[in-house]
Amino acid sequence: MNATPDNFRCGYIAIVGRPNVGKSTLMNVLIGAKVSITSRKAQTTRHRITGIQTRDDAQYIYVDTPGFQTRHANALNKTLNKTVSNTLTSSDAILFLVEAGTFGPADQQVLDMLPKNVPVILVINKSDRVKDKAVLMPFAQKISALFNFAAIVPVSAKLRFQVDALEAEIKRHLPENPPVFGPDDITDRSEKFLAAEIVREKVFRLLGDELPYTSTVVIEQFEQEGNLRRIFAAILVERSTHKSMIIGDKGARLKEISTQSRLDMEKLFGGPIYLEIWVKVKSGWADNEAGLRAYGYE
Length: 298
Ligand SMILES: Nc1nc2c(ncn2[C@@H]2O[C@H](COP(=O)(O)OP(=O)(O)OP(=O)(O)O)[C@@H](O)[C@H]2O)c(=O)[nH]1
Ligand SMILES: [Mg+2]
Hints:
Layout: E1 9-16, H1 23-31, E2 49-54, E3 58-64, H2 75-89, E4 93-99, H3 105-113, E5 120-125, H4 136-144, E6 151-154, H5 163-171, H6 191-206, E7 216-225, E8 228-237, H7 240-247, H8 252-269, E9 273-281, H9 289-294
Parallel strand pairs: 1-3, 1-4, 4-5, 5-6, 8-9
Antiparallel strand pairs: 2-3, 7-8
Bound molecules: guanosine-5'-triphosphate and magnesium ion.
Pfam families: KH_2, MMR_HSR1
Binding site for GTP: 17-24, 64-68, 125-128
Main location: cytoplasm
């Protein structure tokens, strides 16, 4: 192994913004692997999750956070918000994401939480959606008047537009430090955690807006035998009506959830997967702090 160069840089970069602006999508393209789940629905990310990118001269430790919640005041959302504020103060740089052309009260609320002693880069995501690029400039100017940003970078996480430019900007703010993780590490989370998240993503994606966001996934068994991983997952829902929605007509939807999950797991873990998924009714889990800890919410 080569020795770490003297001026190697390494640091933590928090990714924050209101729900659905593309935080997880951006982190995945920055690290070149899908460790954080994404969907069209707001409130997809529920756990702090790191994504790691190691270059010859720097290691970037990104921290994806749940979109800051303002609408509901249940225990789950309070826990999510606490996760976000704890992450901010311990970062070397912050990416504050907004959606090109929109800045509302939910964005303002996140902006108000940002610490003054950490460099904040304003990232204007989804710029591919703006047909008339001339409107981006006044939009950027309007927001930059609200805070002392270290830089402003318009990107499209989806099209990978300007992602390299963003990385170069981030690097300037990383302290000189040896790497914290190994060169091949892509996250600090276990395969068991990632497996549960992949199933949750498929539930989110395949159920559209029918299913209330209070459903979760637990891995009841995770065994590895040589290259084969055997995974038994349970989807927990609040009501029996939700259970039948997930199972679908003659089990068709659950089968689709299972197939898509398995394919993603095979890609991420690099080996064959045997996957069984059960649906269980367990009401009230999102309103109970002890229950949240039991399901892995910090
Ligand atoms: N057009 C376009 N869509 C994007 C872009 N980046 C993300 N999206 C889409 O925006 C939606 C939300 O993306 P996520 O990455 O899940 O957003 P998030 O900010 O992590 O959301 P939460 O975890 O719920 O707070 C998904 O449907 C993405 O495909 C982009 O650059 N352009
Ligand atoms: Mg997310």
